[in-house]
From TrEMBL:
Residues 338-349 have a biased composition (Low complexity). Pfam families: ABC_tran. Residues 320-374 are annotated as: Disordered. Its EC number is 7.6.2.9. Keywords: ATP-binding, Nucleotide-binding, Transport. This is ABC-type quaternary amine transporter. It comes from Krasilnikovia cinnamomea. InterPro entries: AAA+_ATPase (IPR003593), ABC_transporter-like_ATP-bd (IPR003439), ABC_transporter-like_CS (IPR017871), P-loop_NTPase (IPR027417).
Length: 374
C-alpha cells in the first residue's frame, strides 16, 4: 500500500467483510458470541447495536484480530483474515475507539502520521498527508497540528482519532462508540461531519453504538444484536424502524420509532408535483434533500398542513401531513405496536388531516398520497 495517495478521498477503495458462523468463548467460559454470520458490502456503513454485554465490541475486535474467534471465519475482500499477518492486517484496518487512544506525548500532526511513518513514508509526505487529513476532519493544521492531545477539546480529539485512522488509507474502518465521549450537541455535529466525510471516502465501516438515534442516522444497515451476539435483524434503518423483526427489536428501537423513521425517510418519495393552484407563498418550505422529519418540524413550526419542497430554492412540489403519517408500503400499521405507543401511528389516529384542507392546497390535479417509505 502506498502511504500517500493523491488525496485523502482517492483512497484505495474499500473491501467487503464476510463473517461466517463466528463465535467467541473467552478463556473463563463466557460465550460472548455464539454463532454470528453477516456481511458488510464494500463502502457500506454497518452499525452493530444491542444491549450492554451482547458482544458488539468482541465482534469488532475479531475483525482486526485483536480477539481471535473460537470458531468460524472472517473474510476480508474474500480472503480469510486468519491467514493474514495480524500487524499488517491492522495497518489496513482503521480503528477508532471511544477515548481515541491518541499518544499523549506526541503532537496532533505526529499522531495522525503514525501509520504512514511506520510504512516508511518520508517526513514531508507525512506532514502533507497529516495536514490534508486534519483539514478534512475540520481542524486547522496551522492551529492544531503542533498541539498535544490534552490541548484539544473532546470533540477535536475525536476528529483527530478519525484523521489518524484514515491516514492509513484503510480498506475498512472499525469504530467502537466513536462519538460517545462528547456532549450531545458536539456529537450531532461530529455525526454530520462524519457522514459528509464518508460520502467522500466511502470506506467499509463497522460502527458499534448504544445509541439508536446514532445508528439510524449513520447506518446504511443496522445489525441489532442480543446477548451472545445473536443477530435479531440486519436491515436498513427505515426497515428496522417500520418493520422490526420481533418484539425484542421493537422494544429495543423504542416507543418513538415512528418519529425516528421519519428522520430516515426521504422527502422526495412523498412529493406531490405542484398543481399551480397552491398558495405556496404562505407555506413553510423545506429543501428536497431533507427528510420527513424536517417536513413535520416545518409544519409544526409554521402551523401548516403542507410544506413546499424546493430544489436550489425553487419550489418543485408539496408534501402533506397525511403523507407523512401514511404507513410505509406493505407494512401493517401496528405491527409490534403492542409493545410501544408508536408515535407516528398515534399522531395518525389523533391528528388526521382534514381532506378538504388538503384538497385546497393540492388542487384538483393532485393524486392520492404517495407512500413515503424509501
Ligand atoms: N477478555 C474477556 N474475558 C472474559 N469475558 C469477556 C472479555 N471481554 C468481554 N467479555 C465478556 O463478553 C461479553 C461481551 O462483551 P463485549 O465487550 O463484546 O460486549 P459489548 O456488547 O461490546 O458491551 P458494551 O456495550 O457494554 O461495551 C460480556 O459478557 C463481557 O463481560
Amino acid at each position: 500500500m502506498d502511504a500517500t495517495p493523491d488525496s485523502p478521498g482517492a483512497g484505495h477503495g474499500a473491501a467487503p467483510i464476510t463473517v461466517e458462523h463466528v463465535g467467541k468463548v473467552y478463556p473463563d467460559g463466557t460465550v460472548a458470541v455464539g454463532d454470528l454470520s453477516l456481511e458488510v458490502r464494500a463502502g457500506e456503513l454497518a452499525v452493530l447495536i444491542g444491549p450492554s454485554g451482547c458482544g458488539k465490541s468482541t465482534v469488532l475486535r475479531m475483525l482486526n484480530r485483536l480477539v481471535e474467534p473460537s470458531k468460524g471465519r472472517i473474510l476480508l475482500d474474500g480472503q480469510d483474515i486468519a491467514e493474514r499477518d495480524p500487524v499488517e492486517l491492522r495497518r489496513r484496518i482503521g480503528y477508532v475507539i471511544q477515548d481515541v487512544g491518541l499518544f499523549p506525548h506526541q503532537t496532533i500532526r505526529t499522531n495522525v502520521g503514525t501509520v504512514p511513518r511506520l510504512r516508511g513514508a518520508d517526513r514531508k509526505q507525512i506532514r502533507a498527508r497529516a495536514d490534508e487529513l486534519l483539514e478534512m476532519v475540520g481542524l486547522d493544521p496551522a492551529r492544531h497540528g503542533d498541539r498535544y492531545p490534552h490541548e484539544l477539546s473532546g470533540g477535536q480529539r475525536q476528529r483527530v482519532g478519525v484523521a489518524r485512522a484514515l491516514a492509513a488509507d484503510p480498506v475498512v474502518l472499525l469504530m467502537d462508540e466513536p462519538f460517545s465521549a462528547v456532549d450531545p450537541i458536539v456529537r450531532g455535529r461530529l455525526q454530520e461531519e462524519f457522514l459528509r466525510l464518508q460520502a467522500a471516502v466511502r470506506k467499509t465501516i463497522v460502527l458499534v453504538t448504544h445509541d439508536i438515534d446514532e445508528a439510524v442516522r449513520l447506518g446504511d444497515r443496522i445489525a441489532v444484536l442480543a446477548e451472545g451476539g445473536r443477530l435479531l435483524q440486519y436491515a436498513p434503518p427505515a426497515e428496522v424502524l417500520s418493520a422490526p423483526a420481533s418484539e425484542a427489536v421493537a422494544r429495543f428501537v423504542g416507543a418513538d420509532r415512528g418519529i425516528r423513521r421519519l428522520a430516515v425517510t426521504r422527502l422526495r418519495d412523498a412529493l406531490r408535483p405542484l398543481a399551480g393552484t397552491e398558495d405556496i407563498e404562505r407555506l413553510p418550505s423545506v429543501a428536497d434533500s431533507g427528510t420527513m422529519y424536517d417536513a413535520l418540524a416545518a409544519m409544526l413550526t409554521g402551523d401548516a398542513l403542507n410544506v413546499v419542497v424546493t430544489t436550489d430554492g425553487q419550489p418543485i412540489g408539496t408534501v402533506s401531513r397525511s403523507a407523512i403519517f401514511a404507513p410505509p408500503d406493505g407494512q401493517p400499521r401496528d405491527r409490534h405496536a403492542g409493545v410501544s405507543a408508536d408515535a407516528a401511528a398515534a399522531a395518525q389516529r389523533g391528528d388526521a388531516d382534514d381532506p378538504s384542507d388538503e384538497q385546497a392546497v393540492r388542487g384538483p390535479l393532485a393524486g392520492g398520497p404517495k407512500r413515503p417509505e424509501q
